[in-house]
Amino acid sequence: MPESGTTAVVIVLPDAASLVDAAWRIDPALVRHGVPAHVSLLYPFVPEAALTDQDEQSVRSLAARFPAADLLLEEVVTASGFVAVAVPGLQPVVDAFHAQWPGVRPYKGRFGARPAAHVTVALGADDPTAAAHVRAAVGSLLPLRTRATAVQLVVLTEEGWRARLTVPLGGSPDSLLPRL
């Protein structure tokens, strides 16, 4: 479990909430409570205590380089205890954020140096039957259309994850959206 002060850079995909909900209906323990459906661009990111104005400006600048994107989610992917949906349309954004912070190992190296862009649907699905049920339930909801509109820098607090910075994709590097 991550510690308070852990940060991440994500793109929230509200239209993909039904995928996470499908896993929750099978086993609520497989879903991270309070975490919306999203694609992680960098997790973990720079610890909150070490975040600089330059880090935040770099997040703004990178978000501005990519337009909002219509996405089609079509493929369920699984690994040991893990069920996700691939989001290949966001891979260039993920790659750009990794390149900007080469010293930040995505997922602490758990999925290799270049993890595929994805929405995590279930974690800890070690029971093959539960994993198969989640895969089938999620697969029945695909294809799913969604839209990526903003990048968020989020921080884990004692009360859960909160947005520290929200920047529209394709906007001005100086534009901010209201905190959600």
How would you characterize the overall build of this protein?
The structure is a single chain. With 180 residues, the chain is α+β, with helices and mostly antiparallel strands. The chain is built from four helices and nine strands. The protein has helices at residues 17-26, 53-65, 91-100, 128-139, and strands spanning 7-12, 38-42, 69-73, 76-79, 81-86, 118-125, 144-148, 150-157, 160-168. A four-stranded antiparallel sheet has the order 2-1-8-9. Helix 1 (17-26) runs antiparallel to helix 4 (128-139) and helix 2 runs antiparallel to helix 3 (91-100).
DSSP, total strands: 9
Task: Please compute the radius of gyration using only Cα atoms.
Answer: 16 Å
> What is the arithmetic mean of pLDDT?
93
Secondary-structure element pattern, one letter each = EHEHEEEHEHEEE
The strand line-up of the biggest sheet is 2-1-8-9
Unreliable spans are none
* Quaternary structure type: single chain
* Count of individual helical segments: 4
Classification by helices and strands = alpha+beta
Q: What share of the residues lie within helices?
A: 25-40%
Instruction: Compute the separation of the termini in Å.
Output: 23 Å
What is the approximate shape?
Answer: globular
Largest sheet: 4 strands, antiparallel
- What amount of the residues lies in strands? 25-35%
